[in-house]
Structure formats: C-alpha cells, structure tokens
Amino acid sequence: MKNRLKVLRAERDWTQAQLADALNVSRQTINAIEKGKFDPSLPLAFKAARLFKMPIEEIFQEDTEEQ
Amino acid sequence: MKNRLKVLRAERDWTQAQLADALNVSRQTINAIEKGKFDPSLPLAFKAARLFKMPIEEIFQEDTEEQ
DNA sequence: ACTTTATGTAAAATACACTTGACATTCATT
DNA sequence: AATGAATGTCAAGTGTATTTTACATAAAGT
C-alpha cells in the first residue's frame, strides 16, 4: 500500500505531529504509515479522506504487486 | 462503519462463501463484516472495491456518530 | 557550537482483523 | 418431515494496527 500523506502534508506545511493530532492518532502511527511499515485501518483512512476532502483512493493506493 | 456488501452480493446472487472466496478471506470474515462485528482492513476494502468496480466509499460508509 | 523542532526508530503492551473448526439456526426443496 | 445449502455464532489462536515511552538523528536558526 502506497500513500501520499507526506506530499499532502507538505502542500499544507504540516508536521507529522500536526497530522497525527488532526487524525487523533500518535505521531509514530503517521510516521510508520508514511514509511510503509503498516497500513492504516479503514476508519483511519476514512478520517484522512475527510480531513483532506478527497477520496480514499487519492490518498492511498494498492501497490500493483499486491494480490 | 456501515457497508453494502449484503446488497452487492444479492444483486449478483452471490453467497457469503463465494464473496469470501473472491476476496481471499474466510466466510466468517465476510459474515462478521456484514453483521458489523468489525471493520475490514484497508487492503481488504481495496480488494472489494476492485471486485465490485466501485470506489471504497460506495461500499463502506462511516456511520455518522463516529468521531 | 547550541538549541529547538522535525523525523526516524525500537521495545513492550493492547486492541482488533482474520483464521480454523465446530455447531446451531434458517430456509427452500423434495 | 427430511435434507441440504446458506447464514449466524463462538472459542481459541495468529498477525498486525496502534499506543506509550524513550532515544537517536537531521535540519535550521540563533
């Protein structure tokens, strides 16, 4: 799973901590998701979509090799 | 989190077992998700979106009381 | 050089997504 | 009424998302 969180943050000049706050998760969670350590839960993906006012698919994308 | 899996299945005349097969999860997982026992993972939501050829948001919806 | 702020990372604990196996219930068909 | 297929559910186990705490590194400003 790829994601555009880092870019979306940069466009808004937000830190990982600020995004974490806005999504009610820890900074480490944002960092881990950005670094591809794990995928967010579906509820968290929905929160991000609401925050950025865009579809989940514009924030998170399956990488092609995933079945 | 609400979802339209049961309806989407019905439109296609699929059983829970058939949907589970198509998504590579157990029948119990489909049943639990349909009954609202838990939310699917984001990768599973993506698989469902691919299968039904529609955005994640047309299959799964946040219920309004969630923060 | 020093300080501050942002980011990367690790370990241990908790919560939850998902599996397998099993059984009970419902419903349609015979 | 009996059978079979679909659905509901439970318990125990595994894997992973997320938290907290803590420390290390990087970058930027003073």
UniProtKB/TrEMBL annotation, chains A, B:
Keyword annotations of the record: DNA-binding
Pfam families: HTH_3
Domain HTH cro/C1-type span(s) in chain numbering: 5-59
InterPro entries xref list: Cro/C1-type_HTH, Lambda_DNA-bd_dom_sf
Lipoprotein found in the keyword field: no
PROSITE patterns the UniProt entry points to: HTH_CROC1 (PS50943)
Gene3D superfamilies assigned to the protein according to its UniProt record, in alphabetical order: lambda repressor-like DNA-binding domains (1.10.260.40)
One annotated GO molecular function: DNA binding
UniProt KW DNA-binding keyword: yes
SMART domains (UniProt xref): HTH_XRE
Protein name in the entry: Transcriptional regulator
